[in-house]
Amino acid sequence: MKKLLPLLGGCLLSSTALAAGQVSTEWTMPADLTVEFSGVTCDNTGSTVDLEGVLVTGGAQARVAFRNNMKGTHELALLSEVTFEIVPGGGSVTIPKQPSRGGVGGNPHISFQAADIGTELAPGFVPFGDRTYLGRCVQDFRQGLQQPIELSGQLIAMVQAVQCTSKGSDLTIDLEAHSGGVVGTLFFDNNYNSVVHEETVDATARVMLSPSQFTTRKGWGVGGAGGNPHIFLQFLDEEGAPLGEEAYLGRCRDLY
After folding, report:
1. Could you tell me if residue 125 is inside a domain?
2. Angle, vertex CA 243, rays to CA 241 and CA 249, nearest 5
3. Which residues have C-beta within 8 Å of that of residue 175, sequence separation ≥ 6?
4. CB atoms inside a 10 Å sphere around CB 153
5. Contact status, residue 87 vs residue 94, Cβ threshold 8 Å
6. Alpha carbons 186 and 69: distance in angstroms, whole number
7. What number of helices (H) and strands (E) belong to the chain?
8. What residues make up the domain containing 53?
9. Pairing of strands 230-237, 247-251
10. Residue 106's pLDDT is what?
11. 13, 69, 168, 183 from 243: Cα distances, Å
12. Number of domains the chain contains
């Protein structure tokens, strides 16, 4: 798993079986945000700061259980690691450089705040904590920060049976991963403790994820759970702890 700092643990909000063979999971996705501030200029015409950020995410696991009955007298459980790649590739998303000029004098107090803007299906604006004070433009200005955050996201697993016979069952599992986005805001204040004039500028990065390691389009032989077993799916965090309850997908032959 790629990371810059120790990641916060993911938290499952809900797990829903949408239809036979499909499970949708809303997930609070752990990530690390690193922001650099460069190109700082301050004069009588105003202030300019270039804002650039890198975001790196964590991972999860999927557990598929095959049971000969609902009690699970005979069970075979298989795990598959689910790690993620940022799109575009390279393991990071760059927040576009956004300069801000004028309005608060040549040596303003500057602070920064990141926020989750939600997914396209559920847009919103949730700040990741309070503002971080960076200093004054021409003195003691902080050049960067690192912050562990948790982004809203969604996982969808689609399971299809290839065959269900007395010799065992083979499945294909496809995974879709969707995420939210991050907006970083720079605040320029003429007086930090008692603001009279303030200017802000935003830089936004929409984060899209794709599974980089997942057992997809590959048969899983069962053996021991019968030719038409009951199939369950559950997402786990990267440490193996359950993310919500197990979802029942149906019997193998229901998934053709």
Report:
1. no
2. 115
3. 62, 82, 155, 156, 157, 158, 211, 214, 216
4. 25
5. no
6. 58
7. 0, 15
8. 11-95+138-181+208-255
9. antiparallel
10. 72
11. 8, 23, 28, 27
12. 1
CA distances from 135 to 43, 195, 197, 232 (A): 16, 15, 16, 53
Domain-embedded: residue 169: yes
List alpha helices for the chain, DSSP H. none
pLDDT of residue 103: 63
CA 13 from chain centre, in angstroms, equals 13
217: alpha, beta or left? (left if phi > 0; alpha if psi -120 to 50)? left
Mean pLDDT of each 10-residue bin along the chain, 256 residues long: 28 50 79 84 78 77 85 80 64 64 73 84 84 87 87 81 78 76 86 79 75 48 66 84 86 85
pTM above 0.85, yes or no: no
- Contact by Cβ (8 Å): 256, 93: no
Rounded Cα distance between 113 and 148, Å, is 13
State both tokens at 251.
């019997």
Residue 10: its pLDDT value, please? 36
Q: Does residue 213 belong to any structural domain of this protein?
A: yes
Q: Quick count: other Cβ atoms within 10 Å of Cβ 189?
A: 22
For residue 199, being part of any structural domain is answered with: no
Would you state the structure tokens that stand for residue 198, as one six-digit string? Answer: 């303030």
